[in-house]
Amino acid sequence: MQPMWMAITREVSPTIGRCELTHFKREAIDVERARAQHHAYRECLRRLGLEVMELPAEPDYPDAMFVEDPAVVLDEVAVIARMGVESRRGEAELLARVLKEYRPLQRMSEPATLDGGDVLRAERTLYVGLSARTNAAGIRQLAAETKPFGYRVRPVTVSGCLHLKSGASWVGEETVLVHRPWVDAEAFRGLRVIDVPEGEEQGANVLLVGNTVLVAEGFPRTAESLGKLGREVRTLGIGELMKAEAGLTCSSVIFRVE
Questions:
Q1: CB atoms < 10 A from the CB of 177, how many?
Q2: CA quadruple 47, 163, 168, 118: dihedral positive or negative?
């Protein structure tokens, strides 16, 4: 049997308007419009050949649709995170119940904090943001859990944005898209670094699926620069979701299933 790629997603919570915010000013979120944008996102993943799992909304957890944050899923193991905001920590066990069907689980413990949005995987290297949500203990625990499988962990200082992947994205072929004012680009030495065009800093979060890169609408120069790398570029409207500090990576957990 050929391996397949799966994307775990979760429906938008009816309480998303009460989401945690760190750097954004709170704006009213149109829940129905947010759901429509999330539906379009899932359908795009399906068209790209992924098997998409849709988990139900969790009204008790306004941020629960951001399924990237509660876990780091690798080929060999899923590390269940101790998230940086206490109100979100219940999301981790909800996701663990699903992931245990596909991966052995390891769990992080106090005093570690880590959000999956701070983990950028580049082949066998995990770049991990030292951010408001992820601390040094979290980075050390992730390194200890993944070293037996041949991964190396490199810390990256993050400031001015929520997560590492708010300001940096893996776009394949040893290349990272970066907004330098938010991310210490020196941590990516040895890789090719592409700068986000001026004025399009929120376009730094893109999602690579095969040779296709998903880019949020409203960042045309970012899309153009990625197209010049030989990637197929597709744009998606996620403006309503972005009011919750969302990006394209945070709404799915993508991994290979044998």
A1: 25
A2: negative
The two structure tokens encoding residue 128: 């991990």
DSSP state of 172: S
Q: Which residue type is seen at 235?
A: T
Active site residues: 163, 250
3-state secondary structure 142-166: HHHHHHHHCCEEEEEEECCCCCHHH
**Coil, strand, or helix at residue 70?**
coil
> Dihedral of CA 222/227/229/234: which sign?
positive
Q: What confidence tens digit (pLDDT) does each residue in 41-100 have?
A: 999 999 999 999 999 999 999 999 999 999 999 999 999 999 999 999 999 999 999 999
Q: Set out the domains of the chain in order of their start, with CATH numbers.
A: 4-257 (3.75.10.10)
Pairing mode of beta strands 125-130, 119-122: antiparallel
φ, ψ (nearest 5 deg) of residue 193: -110, 125
